[in-house]
Specification:
heterodimer, A: alpha/beta, Rossmann fold, 2 domains, six-stranded mixed β-sheet, four-stranded antiparallel β-sheet, 8 helices, B: mainly alpha, MetI-like fold, 16 helices, flat, disordered C terminus, binds adenosine-5'-triphosphate, binds magnesium ion
Chain lengths: 267, 365
């Protein structure tokens, strides 16, 4: 089967304040349909830039991204995006935030509210439909942020550190919920995280990126059988092995990126 | 008076908690109805014997139980709300008084001020006893007299209506143009950059200086006043709309596009609501300026309107007449502000309560 997404020789440079910053360099990666791929890497190595290139918010300097054998041009609404911090619309109630993508597609109010209500219930937010975002906790907002992307059923979902700002307990619960949702929908997911445990627990494949300019350091298959139990997964032997191996690689990259910072080199 | 407010204010802190629970218990706090008998219960923990008002209440009504919890039954609305924390009406309603009390303080301030003004204008013997000559300063009763007079002659209605009409039309036109211009220039960046220095320069011209020309162009009727009001309101709403639209986080718009919104939808469903707080700020600041524009025009040349009336009466040294004009103006501004505040509260109902409360602290009740 051909890959659903294919990235070939992707390169992205930014010019800011007279400096050239090479964020991603010559990166090639194929993503299979229905796969759960996680990406880890040092801070600032170009992970968000990679996702932004895939959804079309950032134009690659060179390289080609194909989606189902079509070359990508601009924003592709078949691809959903859960951003690094929740950009819920402050002036919309929870249910209207979640239903936003359907509203944009001209779905009538009853249908879209029914669908939103069902998802809201599934992630345990029932009763908060008419609350505004500032009346929700960080964890609740993050759930809303995720189901807002699930509601319109995009083929591919990109998630940029969706659980980043949350506490450890909430993270684990949300990881569990995410795996359940994914098992039912079988979407292709690309998931960025800085937490290696999370990366391994969720993924079919884990990508470790090099320090900037971002490229692939290694790609590891995780053969822990599904359904997985995120609460106990780290005590399994297969988990430990993968973890030790990847942690070794990640540490080197993080170290390298730290050294760059210390030496004050910008590019 | 000031003493009493201070004392009450410091006591308030001590008793704020039980008050809160009393409010929770009853849900809403309402004004007592006329004819209800109030049983007032001061809260414990406050040195109530110092409250002289209780003695007065007791003397007047002949019933006060002494003790730790002191109760008084009073038919005096003012007494009941001004000095006690919680009142119960004879129908069993509980009324929390801190808001009513503030209302009472404000009412007594207004009454006290008017009374002093009136008293100081009284003539005792050959000289003014406080050296305040009502010829120069008028007096509340004289102002009332004049109000009655112009109400009967019909000029109160004509003048008030004229000014309201000019200010309202100027406001609506100015705001509409300003908001539209804000949208257009926020969209056309290059044009905005080209026009920027000119906009700043034109806006810098004092409107008083423009008034004579505008009167030549638009005549001494309402049109020149409307144009003056427009020229003031337009810039304010334009500036606020423009910077509000430019300030919207691009991520919010990008994300909407990713979620399937087209350009029009992004504009109406994301950019506009996100910029709404700024637009409303412009609309709020614009209200008094619309009235300034109208009055300014009327000062220059007019045959009706409150500005004309104020100038006309003061030319005749009819100070009471001028004060009547000022008071009418004040009411117009209050009503207009209330309308815009209501609009803001409705449109920004999604904002955190704290923020909303912080702003409504400056509202006039
Ligand atoms: N719009 C931009 N303009 C200029 N430089 C940018 C821009 N966006 C990103 N960069 C640079 O590109 C590099 C990669 O940024 P990116 O946001 O992709 O990192 P990241 O891997 O997502 O980091 P983190 O884990 O901290 O989110 C950074 O050095 C950053 O300074
Ligand atoms: Mg990032």
């Amino acid at each position: 089967m051909p890959p659903i997404l294919s990235i070939k020789n992707l390169q992205k440079e930014f010019f800011s304040r007279g400096n050239r910053v090479l964020a991603v360099e010559d990166l090639s990666l194929d993503i299979e349909e229905g796969e759960f791929l996680t990406i880890v890497g040092p801070s600032g190595c170009g992970k968000s830039t990679l996702l932004n290139c895939i959804i079309g918010l950032v134009h690659p300097t060179s390289g080609v991204i194909t989606y189902k054998d079509r070359k990508l041009h601009g924003i592709n609404t078949d691809i959903g995006y859960v951003p690094q911090s929740d950009y819920l619309y402050q002036w919309r109630t929870l249910i209207n935030n979640v239903a936003f993508p359907l509203e944009m597609r001209g779905v009538d109010q009853k249908t879209r509210h029914d669908k939103a209500r069902e998802l809201i219930q599934r992630v345990g937010l029932a009763g908060f439909e008419d609350h505004y975002p500032h009346e929700l906790s960080g964890g609740m907002r993050q759930r809303a942020n995720i189901i807002r992307t699930l509601i319109y059923d995009p083929e591919v979902i990109l998630m940029d550190e969706p659980f980043g700002p949350l506490d450890a307990q909430t993270r684990i619960i949300l990881q569990d919920q995410l795996l359940k949702l994914w098992r039912e929908a079988r979407k292709t997911v690309i998931f960025i995280t800085h937490d290696l445990v999370e990366a391994i627990a969720l993924a079919d494949r884990v990508v470790v990126m090099t320090s900037r300019p971002g490229n692939l350091r290694s790609v590891a298959e995780v053969d822990i059988p599904r359904p997985r139990d995120v609460f106990t997964i780290h005590s399994q032997e297969a988990f430990r092995k993968t973890y030790d191996q990847l942690w070794q690689e990640l540490r080197e990259e993080v170290q390298r990126s730290e050294d760059w910072m210390k030496n004050g080199s910008a590019g | 008076m000031v003493d009493m407010i201070d004392k009450e204010a410091s006591e308030d802190k001590g008793s704020s908690e039980p008050e809160q629970s009393a409010q929770e218990a009853t849900g809403r706090v309402r004004l007592p109805k006329l004819g209800e008998i109030l049983l007032t219960i001061p809260l414990p923990g406050v040195p109530q014997l110092w409250r002289g008002d209780y003695l007065i209440g007791a003397l007047l009504l002949g019933l006060t139980a002494a003790g730790y919890m002191m109760c008084s039954v009073t038919g005096m609305f003012f007494h009941a709300i001004a000095f006690v924390d919680v009142s119960i009406t004879h129908t069993g309603r509980i009324i929390k008084n801190s808001r009513l009390r503030m209302f009472a303080y404000r009412a007594s301030f207004a009454i006290g001020f008017l009374a002093m003004w009136e008293l100081s204008a009284w003539e005792l013997g050959p000289k003014q006893w406080l050296c305040v000559d009502p010829f120069w300063f008028g007096s509340p009763l004289r102002v009332m007299d004049y109000m009655v007079e112009i109400t009967l002659s019909g000029s109160l209605f004509v003048d008030t209506w004229t000014t309201m009409y000019e200010a309202f039309l100027g406001y609506v036109l100015g705001a509409a143009l300003g908001i539209a211009l804000g949208f257009i220039l926020a969209r056309l960046e290059t044009l905005a950059e080209i026009l920027d220095p000119f906009i700043v320069a034109v806006n810098g011209i004092p409107r008083v200086a423009m008034a004579p020309i505008l009167i030549i162009w638009f005549g001494i009727g309402v049109e020149s006043k409307i144009v003056l009001a427009v020229s003031l309101v337009l810039f304010l709403t334009f500036m606020n709309t423009y910077s509000g639209l430019r300030g919207v986080d691009p991520n919010l718009k990008n994300l909407a596009q990713v979620m399937g919104a087209n350009e029009m939808q992004v504009l109406w469903k994301v950019t506009l609501p996100a910029a709404m707080p700024w637009i409303l700020t412009g609309l709020k600041i614009g209200v008094p300026f619309a009235i300034i524009g109208a009055i300014l025009g009327e000062f220059m040349a007019a045959s009706k309107g409150l500005g004309f009336m104020i100038q006309h009466t003061s030319n005749l040294f009819n100070i009471a007449g001028s004060f009547a004009g000022l008071i009418l103006l004040m009411f117009i501004v209050l009503i207009a502000n209330a309308a815009v505040n209501w609009l803001e509260r409705y449109l920004l109902r999604w904002r955190p309560k704290q923020q909303a409360a912080g702003e409504s602290a400056t509202d006039v009740y």
